[in-house]
Amino acid sequence: MKIFNTLTRSKEEFVPLNPSKIKMYVCGPTVYNFFHVGNARTFIIFDTVRRYFEYRGYEVEFIQNFTDIDDKMIKKANEDNTTVKEVGDKYIAEYYQDADGLNIERATCNPRATEFIDDIIEFVSGLIEKGFAYEVNGDVYFRTKKFEGYGKLIKQNLEDLQAGARINVDERKEDPMDFAIWKAQKPGEPAWESPWGPGRPGWHIECSCMAKKLLGETIDIHAGGMDLAFPHHENEIAQSEALTGKPFAKYWMHSAYLNVNNQKMSKSLNNFLTARDALKAYDGDVIRFLMLSAHYRVQLNFSTELLDSAKASVERLYNAIDNLENLINEVTTEKMTKEEVKYLEKLNAYKERYIEKMDDDFNTADAITVLFDLVRDYNTNITIDSSKELCEKALELIRSLGAPLGMLQKQTKKESLEDEIERLIEQRQEARKNRDFALADKIRDDLKARGIVLIDTPQGVRWKKEN
């Protein structure tokens, strides 16, 4: 298996620290709002990486943090006239709802930064003792010039970084590139007692500390969006390796940017889209399909047209599953013939191709192509004359290849009329609640056209069939 390592800018053979267990840390969201579709791409990609490792037989200790104390959190709490903790609690719950909708597996652990304050203080103290950090009026800064490897992740030296950076002049710093690892309390901010007075951790130190505490001084994989490579991940490396004297992570993985309608996502361009918004219009399988239809290191566009195309593609795959399930119930022959045994061996070649593609730096785009080739083969060669055993084996194969991608696991059992009506009534109620009366009226009119009349009562919505 090969992984493109951002640290070396090359594909490397993946050799875990432990032959059977992988330690993986992925930077999670700052929980002050719903996460957007750019975040969703990163979360889906590294959920897929984790799933594929498990498919290949590894045990994965997968940590994805919640940043629940930082400037954005404080600003949001002030705007909403609430506490930072309440903001964090709310949006962590919202994260799980949207992650579940995208079929993102729960991490082994989702640590909150505020749960590790004592460990962070110990970490900062260690850096001060080693001469890598210094305190000024309650703030603690990291000495970037003292860490010889600073800039190695993004392949720039300190002088070039300093020349290209937008740095606020702060005369308290020894050097403009030094960064805060502990921040003194400002009026109205939450704070914790420390040797340097009341304050809170800097953003970068949080991930370094949680990774070290939960996974150890050296981990297999550290991952996140490309936007985090500098300064966040570069600073993590500097802090962690300065403290321990050991490599922080063997492999660094970064997902490419996501555009919306061929433009960088921005509120000013009115193309800022949350995962919650996308999930209102499209199924999680469809969104995952689009996110995985390009290699994770390739920039991807996100648009209604591409989502509609992804929806049609997912439906083709589910139609194949539906056909196999129907055949299992309809065919009359139980056991495979000799010819079918040979055919099944041929089908297993698709599995080998799939593994070959995924082993090559998680090439999900080519892996999806293999799935469609497999479906084309099914549609041609598996018929009502096939055996039940072959149909079951074929169904098992396509679902097993979909699983690492987080797709094709839903049941295709047809929804009953009663369940469909109740679901549409619920959608109509939600639309009315959101004052989307056009959608509410459309649902009512569509049901009426099918002979279903909705009756609004003080006890709720009832329905009946027209005579």
TrEMBL record:
Coiled-coil residue windows: 307-341, 407-441
Alphabetical list of InterPro entries matching this protein: Cys-tRNA-ligase, Cys-tRNA-synt_Ia_DALR, Cys-tRNA/MSH_ligase, CysS_C, Rossmann-like_a/b/a_fold, tRNA-synt_1_cat_dom, tRNAsynth_Ia_anticodon-bd
Keyword check for Ligase: yes
Motif 'HIGH' region in this chain: 29-39
GO biological process, one term: cysteinyl-tRNA aminoacylation
Residues reported in the UniProt entry to bind ATP: K267
One MF annotation (Gene Ontology) recorded for this entry: cysteine-tRNA ligase activity
Ligase listed as a keyword: yes
Cofactor(s) required, per the database record: Zn(2+)
Cysteinyl-tRNA synthetase class Ia DALR domain location: 353-417
Keywords for the protein's UniProt record, in alphabetical order: Aminoacyl-tRNA synthetase, ATP-binding, Coiled coil, Cytoplasm, Ligase, Metal-binding, Nucleotide-binding, Protein biosynthesis, Zinc
E.C. no: 6.1.1.16
EC class name: ligase
Similarity annotation: Belongs to the class-I aminoacyl-tRNA synthetase family.
Protein name, per record: Cysteine--tRNA ligase
Species of provenance: Clostridium lentum
Lineage, opening ranks: Bacteria, Bacillati, Bacillota, Clostridia, Eubacteriales
